[in-house]
Amino acid sequence: MHALIIGGGIGGLAAAIALHRHGWQVRVLEQAPAFTEVGAGLSIQPNALRALEALGLGDQVRAHALADAPVGIRRADGTWLIRNDIDRLTRRHGPWLTLHRADLLAILHQALPPESLETGVQVHQVRPDGTVTHTDGTCTADVVVGADGVHSATRRSLWPDAPPPRYVGYTTWRMIAAARPVEGSVETWGQGQRFGYAPMADGRVYCYAMANATQGTTIGMADLRRRFAGWHHPIPALLDTGSPDAVLQHDTYELPDLDTYVAGRVALLGDAAHAMTPNLGQGAGQALEDAVVLARSLEAARLGDTPVAEALRAYDRARRPRTQMIARRSRRLGEMVHRASTPFAVARDTAMRITPSSVVARSMTPVLSWTA
């Protein structure tokens, strides 16, 4: 049977690998001229690592990554709000890894037949019967996977009345700083803005920042350095080593809940189905989980025991409640961090300082406990 995957990001490639390993002939259409990712790191949380292991890629990812469970959360002056018990955290949930997104994409590419990957193809229309119209013509597949991101053409085709992605009020920057020793993966909270950093295997440091801003505002490195100049070490030093040309800025969007992720022979996956704020670091992880569950749901269809549409409905039942729950949690966390009120920030920080690390570890269970 033939599967057509629209979108060659992490979710699309993972879906192609999962289906390929279940015996499907796969074809991936990517609208960009090349499969590339620059300037960004990625945290592979325990649930995401289990998904990669289910794809047979766990060892390869570990070889390119640094084991790096989150150390905790600090205030801008350096005071610890939460300091995790790393041993307790990893015993309870499993390992965290940090690597460059480009390294993960390279691992995913190498797991697929080169002839299955096509770039420079823009999709115009998708129909429920599996027919896809694109820049190179029209094709039909037994199943179509829309993994084409927050502004998905697949979703616009088949869910024309669904609400569009909404801007959540803050923008996000990502960069890779020069190699320097840091204590581990740390996030720092201010009022309406925050900064995070995590060491990578080659010694460089992945950094990200978020701040309340009007949609469409462009803020460069000079302003970032001014914003965080008074924050604790090593934040100013990390920003000083970053190249202005290497900073990626993206406004932060989330997708309102859809009633279903499937239509006929078509399924949405990853951000196309459930784009969420990055506050829990679960965007890529949920796409990887989607890919594993999708392939397993479709196994009965490949064997001829179940119609494709019925198998996809099973995928929807398995994935929609979980992904929408995680999106809600991520939204609430962002609202707590980005509320620009001094009295609220004082109360928030006080509550966090008195919360035991064991409670923090348990609170992560609904998100991190997924297994393949």
From TrEMBL:
A Pfam family it matches: FAD_binding_3
Q: Which organism is it from?
A: Actinomadura miaoliensis
Taxonomic superkingdom = Bacteria
Q: What is this protein called?
A: FAD-dependent monooxygenase
Name the InterPro entries for this protein: FAD-bd, FAD-dep_Monooxygenase_BioMet, FAD/NAD-bd_sf
Q: Which GO terms describe its molecular function?
A: monooxygenase activity
Task: Name the UniProt key words of this record, in alphabetical order.
Answer: Monooxygenase, Oxidoreductase
List residues of the FAD-binding domain: 3-329
